[in-house]
Amino acid sequence: MAQSDVFHLGITKADLQGATLAIVPGDPERVKKIAALMENPVHLASHREFTTWRAELDGKPVVVCSTGIGGPSTSIAVEELAQLGVRTFLRVGTTGAIQPHINVGDVLVTTGSVRLDGASLHFAPLEFPAVADFSCTTALVDAAKATGAKTHIGITASSDTFYPGQERYDTFSGRVVSRFQGSMKEWQQMGVLNYEMESATLLTMCASQGLRAGMVAGVIVNRTQKEIPDAQTMQQTESDAVKIVVEAARRLL
Questions:
Q1: Is 8 a catalytic residue?
Q2: What CATH number does the domain located at 13-252 have?
Q3: 3 state DSSP class of 168
Q4: 133, 153, 163: which is closest to 227 by C-alpha?
Q5: Which parts of the chain have pLDDT scores under 70?
């Protein structure tokens, strides 16, 4: 790994050229695609699940850095980017909806998350809300509307695990521990929109430390209908969500 000012990302403060906003997808493969929608994209480093690029929006530097899957690796990326001067984080990803009225291809903007993770407890007690920053949420909603995307705004259930924590029974054992049996129905009744795996950590970490964070995700499957997404639809939905997060970043700079 090249010279680095932080433990994992393999980048320096000078690499960011004063960037204070980061777009943080989970998948390293998405990073280059996002950076390509901006000006002057430059690959900075790739180490483990963390791939980092720098680009510009209207002449202002923006960082794009993958977090990997789940809260623990997300917390590493956010911590080290904050050490290097980033103060605003926009997460973009894909998600499974759990409300029947939400269609595949729609976009969800998270206002807050159900903390079904463990990593967020390392930053604030469970009573502390995993809430998105208002300005980030507004920018994401406005950007989504500008693209014409059908947008849903609300609460996300953010789980440490993809299978039991999201009450999936299509597994090796077919078993879900009692804590999560019937949990999806409960979240549906409370109006929760979707499941994903990073927002609880991101939002708790940022809200408790004076950082700004927002979250947008494209719906690739509706769990009330099926469990496995269509590959072509998944690609298009991902592309739509990425365009929205870049436009939101432009509005926040």
A1: yes
A2: 3.40.50.1580
A3: coil
A4: 163
A5: 1-2
